[in-house]
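Structure in, sequence out. Go:
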């Protein structure tokens, strides 16, 4: 798949060829919106074969009704699909298949062979490139039942005491047992609400268990923002003597609260909209949404527009999922929204919570449903959109000022197979008088996709040293990729040094958690470990001795994992990864266990990838343990953030000047350390259009150094698209 991407200023580098199979769904292009969008399973081998895999648990004879390459439609109900024989998509699991030869685009619906249709809400499904695609029925019995999960309505909590404590107002609550439910588990019976006027334009409302400690996002991660400061002057005055442009009021029973902007009396947060519910693995709260409010933010999701619409459900769970997929959770988690009312006045609401969650905009309220942690809200007064962003970034950390060269033109792709290929690209840019500032390489340069290594044949050290020296001599820069997965290879220092320092994430049995990514079986650095940054520094500085890079691209840091399981181990007499196609290389070749633990299988299922997919899928087990004792269940969404902090710090120490890091996974505060790009899009005009709301949203999230693959990532691009 020949493609080129060049970017400048706001547009950062291109991405690799389709990162895969069942581990990464790439939707080249589609019409309409459906929670169960087709996923790109296997790249076409050049034969223009279009294969559709379809899973249903209620239809025994599904039919596909289609039009290929804009031709005539089949006669309804279409053609019967057959039991799937495709590897990993067993007929015993309800998978059917249908193949079309010499087809490059396909519009289709599926039905039961009689009168019931799965037709993408009337908009049809569209596949824009040949290859193998999978689609889970949108009307399966299981899916329908899961989608019916409703909000809990209880009698809530009532106030027992209210008092000032230093700079905070502390309210203690007890559960009103008049109407309770054990759905999703037992309720936390006593709560503590701490309200703090953090600045003249912001109020913190923190709701937690009165008796037991619960997971909270460490404020130590926010050294660049006021969240990380415990000695801010605004926190030294007593609550009643602290001035603020916001008012906090409350109702006693059931407890609810309002935050109002004093200047115009506008209510910014009103929790009376829905019952407040706090359980160990399910937290629910809502804020009323006035009829004149437009809501923006809450990501990361690919959307055709920036404003949220009533009915939009945003799932926040970092996932190795291509940005070509619309309306599903992607690489980052940003629980922040901006509301703009009919008079153009804005406010912001930030929930500091790293657990998986669904945030749903209803007609009259915005509902939060999280899998754990606490409810730690920061409400920002605005009143202009620019002031909201300024107040938000003051809290989480102002955007990092990047090195001057990084604002130039970048070139990257997956598939450069040698140093000579890199030289040719740079030479062709010069010959055609096309500006180029930075050259990138993907995992192709590594020896067997092992971090901190060079392919000794195609990217020999002497050749790479010469190539990079020539780049620098001509004023260019060089950025390579690094993935977090470290191969469990006892001949490599990256592994043995990590073992010696004991800095790898552990499985529930206390051993380094073994997953699988591109090099095969891998372990993962624990950036919560106090020695992790020192370890990372040794590896990155050693790599700089090998190749004099100018910045680092960190990828696959959601964390991505091809082998989901609570604990995994190598299989005897099996070479892992399997050789062959991308689908072979990404097929799980470890032996894994799953005991149905409550972390990988929580009682409430967030709408992961639009189908309530397990949160352990395409990730390391959420039962995995960090040095601090924290579980991946709580920290999963923070991995890219913590890796960015360490990578930026190491480079600033190495270069003694502004450093450049690009991260795929982000969280509030990431912009103080890293840039971002929108990930694996497709080579279509729609994808370029959809990148605009994403880029604007990330500016609002405090990550303004952001861009998209201009030419697209999956599929064949065109000269016009790249122009």
């Amino acid at each position: 798949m020949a493609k080129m991407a060049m970017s400048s200023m706001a547009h950062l580098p291109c991405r690799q060829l389709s990162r895969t199979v069942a581990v990464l769904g790439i939707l080249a292009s589609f019409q309409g919106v459906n929670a169960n969008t087709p996923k790109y399973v296997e790249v076409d081998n050049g034969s223009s074969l279009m294969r559709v895999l379809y899973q249903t648990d209620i239809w025994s004879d599904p039919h596909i009704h289609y039009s290929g390459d804009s031709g005539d439609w089949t006669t309804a109900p279409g053609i019967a699909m057959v039991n799937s024989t495709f590897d990993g998509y067993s007929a015993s699991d309800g998978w059917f298949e249908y193949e079309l030869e010499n087809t490059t685009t396909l519009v289709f619906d599926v039905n039961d062979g009689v009168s019931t249709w799965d037709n993408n809400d009337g908009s049809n499904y569209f596949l824009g490139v040949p290859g193998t695609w999978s689609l889970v029925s949108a009307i399966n019995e299981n899916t329908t039942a899961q989608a019916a999960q409703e909000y809990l309505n209880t009698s809530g909590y009532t106030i027992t005491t209210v008092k000032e404590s230093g700079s905070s107002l502390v309210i203690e609550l007890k559960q009103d047992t008049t109407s309770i439910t054990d759905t999703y588990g037992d309720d936390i019976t006593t709560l503590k609400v701490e309200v703090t006027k953090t600045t003249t334009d912001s109020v913190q409302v923190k709701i937690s268990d009165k008796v037991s400690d619960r997971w909270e996002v460490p404020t130590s991660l926010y050294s660049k923002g006021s969240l990380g400061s415990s000695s801010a002057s605004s926190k030294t005055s007593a609550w009643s003597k602290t001035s603020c442009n916001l008012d906090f009021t409350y109702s006693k029973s059931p407890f609810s609260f309002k935050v109002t902007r004093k200047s115009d009396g506008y209510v910014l947060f009103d929790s009376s909209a829905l019952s407040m519910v706090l359980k160990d693995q399910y937290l629910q709260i809502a804020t009323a949404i006035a009829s004149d409010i437009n809501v923006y933010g809450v990501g990361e999701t690919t959307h055709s527009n920036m404003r949220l619409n009533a009915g939009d459900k945003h799932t926040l769970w970092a996932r190795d999922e291509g940005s070509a997929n619309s309306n599903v959770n992607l690489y980052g988690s940003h629980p922040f929204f901006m509301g703009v009312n009919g008079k153009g006045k804005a406010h912001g609401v930030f929930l500091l919570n790293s657990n998986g969650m669904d945030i749903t905009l209803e007609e009259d309220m915005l509902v939060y449903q999280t899998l754990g942690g606490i409810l730690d809200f920061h409400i920002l007064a605005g009143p202009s959109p620019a002031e909201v962003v300024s107040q938000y970034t003051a809290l989480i950390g102002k955007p990092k000022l990047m090195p001057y060269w990084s604002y130039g033109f970048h070139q990257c792709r997956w598939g450069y197979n040698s140093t000579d290929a890199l030289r040719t690209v740079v030479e062709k840019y010069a010959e055609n008088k096309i500006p180029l500032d930075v050259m990138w390489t993907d995992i192709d340069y590594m020896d067997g996709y092992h971090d901190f290594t060079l392919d000794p044949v195609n990217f020999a050290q002497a050749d790479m040293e010469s190539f990079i020296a020539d780049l620098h001599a001509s004023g260019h820069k060089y950025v390579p990729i690094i993935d977090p997965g470290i191969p469990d290879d006892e001949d490599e220092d990256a592994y043995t040094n990590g073992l010696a320092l004991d800095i790898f994430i552990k499985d529930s049995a206390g051993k380094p958690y073994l997953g699988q990514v591109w090099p095969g079986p891998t372990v993962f650095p624990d950036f919560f470990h106090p020695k992790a940054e020192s370890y990372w520094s040794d590896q990155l500085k050693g790599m700089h001795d090998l190749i004099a890079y100018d910045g680092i691209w960190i990828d696959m840091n959601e964390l991505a994992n091809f082998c989901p399981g609570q604990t995994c181990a190598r299989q005897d007499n099996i070479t892992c990864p399997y050789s062959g196609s991308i689908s072979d290389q990404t097929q799980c070749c470890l032996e894994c266990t799953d005991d149905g633990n409550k972390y990988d299988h929580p009682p409430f299922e967030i709408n992961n990838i639009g189908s309530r997919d397990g949160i352990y899928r395409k990730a390391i087990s959420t039962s995995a343990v960090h040095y601090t004792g924290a579980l991946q269940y709580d920290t999963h969404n923070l991995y890219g953030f913590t890796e960015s902090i360490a990578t930026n710090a190491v480079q600033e120490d190495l270069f003694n000047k502004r450093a450049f890091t690009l991260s795929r996974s982000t969280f509030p505060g990431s912009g103080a350390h890293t840039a971002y790009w929108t990930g694996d899009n497709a080579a279509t005009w729609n994808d370029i259009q959809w990148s605009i709301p994403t880029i604007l949203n990330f500016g609002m999230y405090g990550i303004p150094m952001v861009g998209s693959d201009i030419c697209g990532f999956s599929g064949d691009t065109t000269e016009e698209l790249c122009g």
